[in-house]
Amino acid sequence: MSRKSGETKKANWRNVRTAGMAFSLVAAMGALSYAAVPLYEIFCQVTGFGGTTQRVDTASDRVVDRAITVRFDANAPGVPWDFRPAAPVTVRLGESAIVNYTAKNLIDQPSSGQASFNVTPEMAGAYFNKIDCFCFTEQTLQPGEKVDMGITFYVDPDILEVPELADLQTITLSYTIFPLDRDSDAVASAERTDNVTTRSIARETTGD
């Protein structure tokens, strides 16, 4: 084998090795990006960062004689639902409460959504515990269907140990329903139908 031939093979091997390393790096970056969202969600649930609430399996084993009011907020941008919050409740710290949001599908096709949530003040998120919640799974409403969407929760008495929260009187729990990608075309089609129907009624009313 000539010296030139040997150098060519070495160069080819270096190129293959470099390409392999580059591919591995891209794959690793992709895996990290994919994992970033669930890792961030876990971080938020553990720390309460950004007002993220906690998920627990059982009720509190301690109730203290200190009341706090929980208010509720509801938003549904891009989802054809009439989404309404529960009425405010006043509970003792550690006491479990059950409340219901309501939602009605306003179009003539099934519509699905997934809820995101947070509490304010944000620091209270680490002490707002949900035992059960409609937000744990995606929700699908049939045409015209109206449902109650329940939440079972309690506020951890340990909140009293945080100087910034010890005198807190009110917590606000907010839910936002986001559309699922598979429903985007159906919603857009329903909106176009509604617009056409509205224009038709307007023409009939004006006589044009």
What does this protein structure show overall?
- The chain is built from 2 helices and 10 strands.
- It has helices at residues 3-47, 184-206, and strands at residues 54-55, 67-75, 81-84, 89-92, 97-105, 111-120, 128-133, 139-141, 146-155, 170-179.
- It is of the alpha+beta class.
- The model is unreliable at 25-51 and 190-206 (pLDDT under 50).
- Strands 1-7-9-5-3 form a 5-stranded mixed beta sheet, with no helix packed on it.
Strand order of the largest sheet: 1-7-9-5-3
Shape: elongated
Order of helices and strands: HEEEEEEEEEEH
Distance between the termini: 91 Å
* Beta content: 25-35%
Measured on Cα atoms, how large is the radius of gyration?
26 Å
Biggest beta-sheet profile: 5 strands, mixed
Task: List the SSEs and their pairings.
Blueprint: H1 3-47, E1 54-55, E2 67-75, E3 81-84, E4 89-92, E5 97-105, E6 111-120, E7 128-133, E8 139-141, E9 146-155, E10 170-179, H2 184-206
Parallel strand pairs: 1-7, 2-10
Antiparallel strand pairs: 2-4, 3-5, 5-9, 6-8, 6-10, 7-9
